[in-house]
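Retry 2 of 3 after timeout on previous attempt. Resubmitting structure tokens to design endpoint.
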């Protein structure tokens, strides 16, 4: 962790050189068995993005963001949350060239929502609530609709409840008539769900 923290003290000019020669070692940290080490690396990525905000070295920043790739399947919730936060900070504060502005976010969410692990699928749903900061209302709805359509056949009650809670908050914070259509689709698919929490949440949204 001390080695990771050293990254935050070096100059912008030396950052790209340092990352180029030490990147393999930092990749090792991303796979460390201790979740605190992985979290420490993610925190350092977060701090680097803030420290170098006014001195953009795009090559170095892209190298930093590459480290994020190794956390996509991290089973620790706080690590996945910080990963998403880092990507959000990047697209909000740095000029992006060569790819669609929201490409990183959408790629990550689409990977998560199709994951075999239900906890990671839940992260995709929960992360939608953060996107109002960077998405226009209609664009946000399009992405939400895409994610929810994929999950219509979700079998895990916890994920279903997360979807319904998220939809409730989305409707309140970023009103869009399309959310009513999403709710109708969910109500059709889950009307006779065996889980009481799902049925209760559906009823509260329809009331």
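Retry 2 succeeded. Sequence:
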């Amino acid at each position: 962790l001390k080695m990771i923290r050293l990254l935050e003290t070096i100059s912008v000019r030396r950052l790209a050189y340092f990352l180029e020669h030490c990147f393999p070692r930092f990749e090792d940290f991303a796979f460390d068995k201790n979740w605190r080490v992985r979290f420490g690396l993610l925190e350092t990525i977060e701090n680097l993005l803030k420290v170098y905000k006014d001195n953009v070295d795009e090559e170095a920043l892209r190298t930093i963001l590459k480290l994020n790739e190794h956390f996509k399947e991290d089973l620790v919730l706080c690590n996945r949350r910080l990963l998403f936060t880092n990507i959000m900070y990047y697209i909000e504060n740095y000029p992006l060239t060569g790819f669609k502005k929201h490409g990183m976010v959408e790629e990550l969410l689409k990977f998560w929502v199709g994951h075999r692990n239900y906890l990671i699928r839940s992260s995709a749903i929960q992360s939608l609530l953060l996107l109002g900061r960077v998405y226009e209302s209609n664009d946000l709805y399009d992405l939400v609709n895409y994610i929810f359509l994929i999950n219509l056949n979700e079998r895990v009650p916890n994920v279903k409840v997360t979807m319904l809670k998220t939809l409730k908050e989305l409707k309140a914070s970023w009103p869009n008539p399309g959310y009513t259509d999403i709710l109708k689709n969910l109500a059709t698919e889950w009307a006779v769900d065996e889980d009481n929490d799902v049925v209760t949440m559906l009823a509260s949204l329809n009331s």
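Attempt log closed. The two ends are 51 Å apart (CA to CA).
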